[in-house]
Amino acid sequence: MGGGHTPKTVGTIWGLLVLNTLGSAGAKTIVPLPRSLIQMVTMGALVAAFALALAVNLRLRIRASAYVFLLTLLLVTSVISSAHLESGFGALFRCTRLALFVGTLWLLSRWWDGSLTFVRHHIRMYFAVLGSVAAGLVASPGAALPDLYGGRLVGALWPLTPPQIGQYAAVITGLTVLLVLGRRTDRAGAAVVIVPSLVLLALTHTRTATLGLFLGLALAIGSLLLTSAAARRFFTWAVVCATVAAVGFASVLQAWFLRGQSKENFSSLTGRAKVWDALLAAPRTTGEKWFGVGLGDKSFGGLPIDNSWLAVYNEQGLVGVTLVAAIVIVLGGVALLRPPSLQRACAIFLISYCAIASYTEAGLGDASPYLLHLALAAALLAAPATAAARATPDPPRRHIPRWARRSEVP
């Protein structure tokens, strides 16, 4: 099941999923785009992705996937919590979106075989998104670096926030570095992706993405140290460069990290802690405690929650939190049990990045780039179809007596 040649349409489907998860809220663009139009484009991309996945997999062949199974259970929980309409009819719309997202992943699971095919699709699509950000920066620096966001880089052509851009830049940078270490791409081609991505990441001043990139890469490369000389050399040079930078540019790095904030504002995580305390202190019924109030816009009291675990607790309750934790634990456990390989390292990077970002970013409970990153990790950790086929024993041959083997013809 799966295996063999992956149709080119699969890359298109993955790109449509990326487009859907870009969202519809963000900075003001050079050409004003109505939010209804953006939602139509993103939702249309998801419907098209599901239709194409269904067309390319008409026989509905799927592979067993603990990740997508747990997502399906999370979808059921979301429907139960949203049925009371405490979050309005928008909750049911979001459930429909999540259902199409999960259904598309089920259909694509046929081609999850532990290869790097989906890694390349992932890098290409998010690099294209970053290309639009760079084009907006060149076309209108003032719109791309607005005072509203403290001079941080935003999407001037498509409404993207600094954390979004930082996330995309960090993820494709980490994956490309790993491909270079695994000798699956040349250094010149990798530099074309890594250098611009790091520049855009620096312009976003996104601390979560930066920490996720470095810590995720440290864990991923650490998993290759025993089997890869290139990984050992890179790790050694990275430690030396990090030490020199920490000593020689400490004040510059501190200024970039603080982003001009006071220590009090920084210690409260830019006001996030106040929202978290209010959310946890709010009274809840037993049903709301276990199943949440239904899928919403990841806000509480009109302010963004900016924490995946608290957002899931608010919208899908303790049951949702348990399922999301199971997703991270299962993927992480499978990654640790796999023998060292480039695919395993990429999966470890993605899982660790999402786990780190979950503290200050929401998205693990609904269709989002984070669930797409974890889907890529699941695809990388899937056993090759050929190996699975070989593991299936051949049916035993029936013993035929010697007298029965003789021909009856004299």
What is the chain-wise order of helices and strands?
A: HHHHHHHHHHHHHHEEHHHHH
**Can you give the helix content as a percent range?**
55-70%
Shape assignment: globular
Strand order of the largest sheet: 1-2
Q: How many helical stretches?
A: 19
Counted beta strands? 2
Termini separation comes to 47 Å
Largest sheet: 2 strands, antiparallel
Mean pLDDT, to the nearest integer, reads 88
Low-confidence stretches: 387-394
Rg on CA atoms, Å: 24 Å
Find the structural class using helix and strand composition: mainly alpha
Strand percentage lies at under 5%
In brief, what are we looking at here?
The chain has 410 residues and is mainly α. The chain has helices at 8-20, 35-56, 66-82, 90-108, 117-139, 141-144, 162-181, 187-204, 207-222, 229-248, 250-258, 263-267, 272-281, 286-291, 308-337, 342-357, 369-381, 385-391, 402-405, and strands at 299-300, 303-304.
Report on the structure:
Helices cover 66% and strands 1% of the residues. It is an all-alpha fold. The chain is globular. A two-stranded antiparallel sheet has the order 1-2. The protein contains 19 helices and 2 strands. A hairpin with a 2-residue loop joins β1 and β2 (303-304). α2 packs parallel to α4 and α5 crosses α7 (162-181). Residues 387-394 have low confidence and may be disordered.
